[in-house]
What we know:
Largest sheet: 8 strands, parallel
Number of helices: 15
Structural class: alpha+beta
Strand order of the largest sheet: 11-10-9-4-3-14-13-12
Amino acid sequence: MFKRILSGLLVSALLTGTVVCITGCSNSNQQSGSEDNNSTNTSTEYAHADKIDDGTILQCFSWDFNTIKESMADIAASGYTALQTSPINACYEGENGGMQLYGDGKWYYHYQPTDFKIGNYQLGTRDEFKAMCDEAEKYGIKVIVDVIANHTTPTTSAISQDLIDAGGGSLDTLYHKNNAYDLTDYSNRLACTTYKMGGLPDINTERTSFQDYFIEFLNDCIACGADGFRYDTAKHIGLPDDPKEDDGFTNNFWQRVTTEVNNADNLFMYGEVLQGNNERIADYIEAIGHTTASTYGGKIRNAITNNTLSKGTVSDYWLGNAPLNMVTWVESHDNYINDGNWYNMTKEQVILGWAVITARKDGTPLFFDRPYNSSVENEWGMNRIGTEGDDMYKDKSVKAVNFFRTAMIGEEENIVNPNSDSTAVMIERGTKGAVIVNTKDELKTGFETNLADGTYVDRVDGKTEYTVKNGKLTSTADIPANSVVVLYNEGFKEYADAAEVGVAEDTVFDIEKGKSVDVTLTCANTDNAEYVLNDSKAVAYKNGDKITVSIPDGSDKATLVLTAQNSNGVKTYERVEFSPIEKYTIESGTKVYFEKPASWDDQIFAYVYNDEMYENETWPGIEMTKESDGKYSYSFTKDWETPYIIFNDGDFADSQQYPGSGENGLVVEKDKTYTIE
């Protein structure tokens, strides 16, 4: 069922291959290596892995270039090696450029290319992208760009003439001949690599002139500062020995884009290859370098939500005999949105899963940052494209395990269930460190470990001590339920707590025109928090201060920027936006009509709901009255505040609905006859 629901921070040069120094830190690169190190000295040198393979990636889902640039200190301070942008290509502009993730705008429009040139209305310009890359380089953060070569927007009238020319001069030559067919059999390799998938026209990626054009786009990204690429829908682009159309071209796309781009040997490239139905994942790893490990992500999600972290479940990557050159995740944006993981898994559970995959030796973990202020009751949260996502990406547990991963490079792993309890798992790295993830009840210590004898402090809470003696780990306290414990001494560096800024969780981001809302500001670990409302002057604030926000006349949003620095001068940044809404009342007795398509069943339903999550009936709603052949009516039996309506022909596997699945309902207008355009 559809549910609506630095300013001048100076950065020094890279000191070593793994440490970046920000103004205010010492010149020493020495990392603490004592067996019993409980030092409280702080530094703003951030240890990052030299290679993306050995580190972690932050997926900045729908953040614009300027937001990423301003958030770079936060990203570095949270221990990430790389960030991944959303697609930066020219794209389809829907809903007149609306900037909601879903509703008045769509996040997925940047996955609908109209040209392969840098810059789009959702993320920003080429100059802004380059400035973002320059900022990332100051912090030693690598930049991965999400790219799409497989398809274009289905709105073919929006495709640029340059792209059409690169594709042979017409839309017919730009696409595969088999593009006329919809992909249904994913195990058929010819269909999988040449048919139209999900209504998205399939580019003939074997055409040499298209390859040249696409490589020019990749090289421009590299010139701006990109360090790697994620290839969307990679398994729909043929491998060298895949069957192909008889058009005189060769299945050499992967060979060309992985060897003929500039700086090819130093790029991190991976393909989205969702497992199942003859996906040939080992061959894609060989062709591209790395792929996703989607099955493993599903296993981890199930393990966390069901409190069953058995060694067998956690350890098996489900890649068969393929090399372990993979990007792992707890959830991807597709899992979150399309698979409903937004309501199946809490943020806290995602963080538990992140600790598992990041503590491990193999794979390169990708952290999908959920929308700002989202929850299991609210998929889209603030519902804005361009702004920073949820603060979960810099949670203390996430940060601790990110730095743990860097410190453990080269150490073998050992996975055990402490006390033979599969509701918890311990991932040991040699004798240097361990991460313990506990999903259910309090876990008693006293279990066996390979850690070297000594005293360890939990690097998450910074205070709980654990002792290892003669192969036993003990503590005066039990390990809490739903928690992460990170233990290591050698390679650990103490960093000052990051400054925190934000707004209260109950903030309302939709403001009725002509009205205002009160917003409570929050901050921590700082004495210099400031806010800027709608580009006005900066104003200092303290935790708990309230301000009044309204939509400026002639504007489609109100913007609130929050900044602060911690004790070492490291900046934190957050931008939130407020959208205007129009409220209306529908009185009891109001009648609306719907003309169904001939392909729909004859039993038609109206599902009515509003932003307060009231509904006329559970899905599929209430059956409509047949007025004549193909025309149906629905009468409101009570007054409604700003209702929306979805028409459908029932709750079964092949049922149809308008608007489509996942789309917002229609605004209700008295006596209107709705038809599908």
